[in-house]
Fold each of these.
Amino acid sequence: MNAKKPAMEVPECKEQLIAIKDTMILLSGKWKIQIIGWLLLYGKVRFMDLLRGIDGIAAKMLSKELQELEQNQIVARTMMPTKPITVEYELTEHGKTLSGVITAISTWGVTHRKFLFKKES
C-alpha cells in the first residue's frame, strides 16, 4: 500500500520566488542581457551601433528585444530630428539598477571560463 506524501508547504519566501520568476521572464533569451550589458558599457548608442556590436543578432530581433525592454522601462528610445531619422537607445535610471546583476553575471562568466579552460589543460 502506498502512503501519501504530505503536500509540500509553500515557502514563506513566495514573494521572492515570484520576483525571481518575473526577472527571469524579463531577462530571458539570448539577447536581452547582452543588450543591457552593451548599454551599461557604452551609454547612449544608435540602433546600428548595437546591431554591429552584438555579434550574431539580426536587426528584426534587436528591434523586438529593444521594444520589450522599452515596454518594461529598462531602455529609453530617443528619435533624433535628423534626415534620415536617427534613433538612440540608453538605459533608464531603473534599467541602470541592473548594473549589479550584469556585473555579477560577467564576473561569474570570466571565472567559469577560467575554470573550464583550466580543466582542459
Amino acid sequence: MKDLLGLMGKAKEMQAKFQAMQDEIATLEATGQAGGGLVSVTLTGKFEMKSLKIDPSLFKEDEVEILEDLLLAAHNDAKNKVEQVMQEKTRALTADLPIPPGMKLPF
C-alpha cells in the first residue's frame, strides 16, 4: 500500500514538472532563417508566428516564387528549432523514468 501511495505521489510530482515544462516551452522563441538571412521567421513555443522579416532586395516581381520558397524554408527552420528544444527538455525531464524508447508523450 505504501508503494502505491509513493507511486501516486511521484505521478503528481511528475505531472507538476510536465506542466512547468509546458509553461516554459510556451514562452520559448526560435528564429529560423533562409537565403543566408534574407528571410527570417520567429515562432513561439506554441508554433505561433511572432515576426517575419524579409530583405527588401527580394521584392522583385519575377522572384515571387523564390520569396515563397524562402518563407517556407525559414518557417520550417524555426519550427524544427522549437521541436528540438521541446525534445531536449522532455528527455531531460524523463531521464529517470522507465519509459520505453520512442514513446510519445501527450504534448
Amino acid sequence: MATMTVSLPDPMKDWIEEQVKRGDYASTSDYVRDAVRKDRERREPNYPLTIEELRDMIAEGEASGVSDKTLEEIFEEAMQRVNAKHNRVA
C-alpha cells in the first residue's frame, strides 16, 4: 500500500480525528479511504457496484429461494446484469 502525505486546514483535521474518536472509523487513513471511495462512486457512475447495490442483490437472492440453475448459469446471468448496468449508465 502506498503512502501519501496530505495537508489539511486545522478544522478539517479536527473533524476527521473526531470521527475516529467517535468510533466511526478505525483511523484517519480509514476515513480518507472511505471519502475517496464515496467520491469515486459519485463521479464514476460506471464504477462496478456500490455497497448498496451489492446489499440489494444479496437480499434479492436470499428472498428468491433455492435455484435449480447450475453455478455456471448463475454466474453468466450475474455477468449479464453487470454488463447491462454498465451499458445502461454509459
